[in-house]
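User: Can you write out an input/output pair for a complex, sequences first and structure second?

Assistant: Here is one pair. Inputs:
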Amino acid sequence: MDLSYTKEVLKHLKSPKNMGKIKNPSGEGMVGNRVCGDIMKMYLKIIKNEKGEEIISDIKFQTLGCGAAIATSSVLTTLAKGKTVEEALKISKDDIIKALGGLPAIKVHCSILADEALKKAVEDFRSKK
Amino acid sequence: MKSIYLDYAATTPVDLSVIKKMQPFFDTIFGNPSEIHKWGAKASEGIKNARSQISQALNCNPTEITYTSCATESINLSHKGLIEAFSHPNHPIPPNLPHIITSSIEHKAVLETCKHLEKLGWAKVTYLPVDEYGLVSVAEVEKAITPQTTLISLMYVNNEVGTIQPIAEIGKLLKTKYPKIYFHTDATQALPYLDCDVKKLNVDLLSFTGHKIYAPKGIGGLYIKSGVPVIRQQDGGSQENNLRAGTESVPLIVGLGQAVELVIKNRAKESSRLKALQKNLISQLVIVPGIQLTGPKTNRAPHIASFIVKDVEGEAMMLLLSDLGIAVSTGSACNSQILTSSHVLEAMGIKAEDSHGSLRLSLGKDTTKQDIEYAISCVKKVVLNLRKMSPVFDEEENALSEVEGLH
């Protein structure tokens, strides 16, 4: 079985984008657990533009997990940043895989938690409103 | 870009002298050793010489060595072949099923072979627990013995944590009190560093492989003490004393013989050299907060150093170290093809959430003091970087950056 990662995955692992915390975030969401190995936390800063749309002006992640878990978190933040909340919620696991140029099959189900963490962060934001 | 290989327990490069010895057997001395013409006889001579080199290393008779393709095959031949022999008319059939005793930290080759024999209904198997250091207790072995016990199989050195099992002690116990039980040891990791004299160990069967001792992949061997009933598992011609059919891979066999001779010659010197490097590696890594040694502090093979790193996942650690030019290995589930964590660490009582952070560095003939120093600084750097990424690591509580030597 091929377990090897694409160059894009390794690039994100080596130099993750938008890694860290946001102080006083508009919303935050954490998914995963230590036993399965991956824990992911997303932080969102959401502002309204002139049209009154909710825009993700900043997004940061923290991840404890394998190469795929870190790379999928990192790439999701790049996909979601600057988008409206509605657009960001439409980012699918397939979009994440495509942006990374593919993922080993075995990693697809266990390592992509980033979209779920994002949804949770949006839920948190909405519950605060 | 540095290139520091610290994964010798996974496999080793082929030694130049081994390649040189093998070279003529690819094109000049290429005959089929089963033929008695000059071409065949020359090839046969190469096989014979290698058998003599190996038998000297193990202190046995050359006829007691059977070539296989790897240690996994040796183990399959040994265990399946022995158990099958007990349904053979020439050997007494025990009143109940043959019983095998092994440990829960064996290599998959042993565990899966035992499971297969259970599934076939040919044997009952006891999987002994180990203590927190991965050690099997001699008393537990004796307690597990039943009148049906036919085979005891224990690894000499554990490949993940480096624990050395008391093979000689168990061998002595069996020889004096239970002479009818056959004793197998998997000496794959032990051969280059520990005494593998089969008479001192009192073993009846011993498995080993070439690619952990600077010979190529695809060649291994099994010591079968004269008189031990083993039925061949690969049928065909009468090669290897009728124990393993198929035309012998002459170049690989010649390489194996040369490699065995080489590691035995260098054993004492290399063991103490690597022990010193290992000591430095372990002592400098265990002082990092959240890094603990797995396996015993002493009584470990000189080439394996293994750790649990808290709040970091092993695969990510391995990939980042690889990027810095260092090859290591991990027992993390995330790095396995079936996403299960290391059965060895689990048997030692290490929790699943901790075994995700497992890290193994294994040393070999080209490892230098400078390599170890560089590896130590890179491990610290990578651990710090990954912890910074982690949502569960509290930087204020664990001021890792204060650790000396961090770049």
